[in-house]
Amino acid sequence: MGGCLINAISCAAYYALEAEGITSVGVLDIDAHHGNGIANTIEGEERIRYVSLHELNAGMSMGGGPRPEYDPRSPEESDIGPRGNIRNIVLKKGEGWGTYERKLVEGLVFLEDSDLLIVAAGFDAVKEDNTSGLSLQPKDYKSIGRIISRKMKDKPVVLGLEGGYTHEKGSSEEMGGVLGACVAEFVKGLKD
User: Fold this and answer.
1) In the Cβ-directed half-sphere of 91, how many Cα atoms lie within 13 Å?
2) Contacts from 79-84 at CB under 8 Å and sequence distance 24+?
3) What is the DSSP string of 148-180?
4) Contact of 182 with 135, CB cutoff 8 Å
5) Distance (Å, rounded) from C-alpha 87 to C-alpha 109?
6) Please, what are the averages of pLDDT over each run of 10 residues along the chain (192 residues)?
7) Where are the domains of the chain?
8) Are 68 and 1 in contact (CB under 8 A)?
9) Which helix (H) or strand (E) segment is 98 a member of?
10) Pairing between β-strand 48-55 and β-strand 25-29 as defined by DSSP bridges
11) CB of 104 within 8 A of CB of 147?
């Protein structure tokens, strides 16, 4: 649907399966939008598990209308893919950290047996980003990083930038405004 020309996250997941000692890959998509492209490209590979935490709303397509009929992967929680390796975890407009934290942990349970975790790191669930209606704060991304780090223990975690579209200045102008603050907090959380 035009969100990316080459799906770097899926390419990385398939590439990782070629590495010695990697028999399974987990992909955690924390972008506020459903990762239908990732879901579509990994749906047939049982060694890759995918979790998308995303806002479900009426405008799920890039054009703002309903999901096109030709899109094989639905953003609904009922769509687990033909091999059962997909989990869509739906968030509602206005939801913030309390709900997000619970659902993040739920998603990581599905991925915790993976040898490697790839995070499709989107920062558009922050309240200031007008491409979603979610209400995370920059500090919540530190908690997301910390939870990922603790849940995956000593397993490798790889990051790929997905989204984050606000360039508004916030309390952290020296780090690139709100978007920069989210990224910085996320990395701090991963290191904790």
Assistant:
1) 31
2) 79/39, 81/39, 81/43, 81/50, 82/43, 82/44, 83/43, 83/44, 83/45, 83/46
3) HHHHHTTS-EEEEE---------TTGGGTHHHH
4) no
5) 11
6) 74 97 97 90 96 77 51 79 95 95 97 97 90 93 97 94 68 62 94 89
7) 20-191
8) yes
9) helix 97-111
10) parallel
11) yes
**86 three-state secondary structure:** strand
Q: What angle do CA 82, 31, 52 make, to 5 degrees?
A: 25
Query: CA-to-CA distance for 140 and 158, rounded, in angstroms?
Result: 19
Contact 188, 147 (CB under 8 A): no
Instruction: Please report, as a single letter, which amino acid is at residue 145.
Output: G
The pLDDT, as a whole number, for residue 95 is 94
pLDDT value for 164: 74
| Rounded Cα gap, residues 149 and 157, in angstroms | 8
Residue-level pLDDT at 59: 47
127 in helix, strand or coil?
coil
20-191 — its CATH code? Answer: 3.40.800.20
Distance CA 140, CA 146 (A): 10
Q: What's residue 172's pLDDT?
A: 45
